[in-house]
Amino acid sequence: MNTLCAAGTGAFLSSQAERLDVPVEEFGKIALTSKSPTPIAARCTVFAESDLVHKAQMGCKKEDIIAGLCKSVALNYLNNVGKGKKIMSPIIFQGGVSKNIGVVKAFEKILNEKIITDENGHLMGALGVAILSKKEQEINFSFDIIEDKFETTSINCQGCPNNCEIICVKKNNQLLDSWGNRCEKGSNKSKSTIKE
Ligand code: SF4
């Protein structure tokens, strides 16, 4: 769902579920019982986490905090990852977090649009990789990967004050993928660091 910030990931929701002593599978259902979601800082996981603790200490109801967290995940995604991107219908939500009805409903409320999910939505990434592997197998399959050298490095883009940290994954010194840049300028930056 998100390569820019941990707040949009299932791992973040799982750790907060643990903190609230609620099974993460129940998170969504509990969120729907809230009549007044507690506002939780959505800008960053660190703030969201400390805000959650603060709201719990203030005596906010658990269901309201959980609904607020679901809303903050949706807002974080739209404000950070989806920023500047055109939202097109139909909206399809996949990945583990799509199983959380609280987050799905939060997206629907913010976007005022029905969100499409699938009961196997958490498996879509694995399915995609399986299809790609099958295609690759038909074209050119080998176990050479065992001999390949993989390396992860990071660079800081100086293109603007955001100073994004860009993580680069290289295979035999060739860029495989990079993430963390908030704009295309950073993507070019990561490419330029690789010696061909
Ligand atoms: S990637 Fe884009 S937003 Fe990030 S520092 Fe570079 S120019 Fe700025």
Order of helices and strands: HHHHEHEHEEEH
User: With helices defined by DSSP (H or I, 4 residues minimum), what is the helix count?
Assistant: 7
Number of strands: 5
User: Considering DSSP H and I runs of 4 or more, what fraction of the residues is helical?
Assistant: 40-55%
Describe the structure.
With 196 residues, this protein is an alpha+beta fold. It has 2 domains: 6-123, Nucleotidyltransferase, domain 5, CATH 3.30.420; 144-192, no CATH class. 44% of the residues lie in helices and 12% in strands. It contains 7 helices and 5 strands. The chain has helices at residues 10-19, 27-32, 45-57, 62-81, 101-111, 124-140, 184-192; strands at 91-92, 115-116, 150-156, 165-171, 174-179. A 3-stranded antiparallel beta sheet has the order 3-4-5, covered by helices on one side. A two-stranded parallel sheet has the order 1-2. Strand 3 (150-156) and strand 4 (165-171) form a beta hairpin. Helix 3 runs antiparallel to helix 4 (62-81) and helix 4 packs across helix 5 (101-111). The radius of gyration is 20 Å and the shape is globular. The model has no long low-confidence stretch (mean pLDDT 83). Bound molecules: iron/sulfur cluster. Iron/sulfur cluster (SF4) binds next to helix 7.
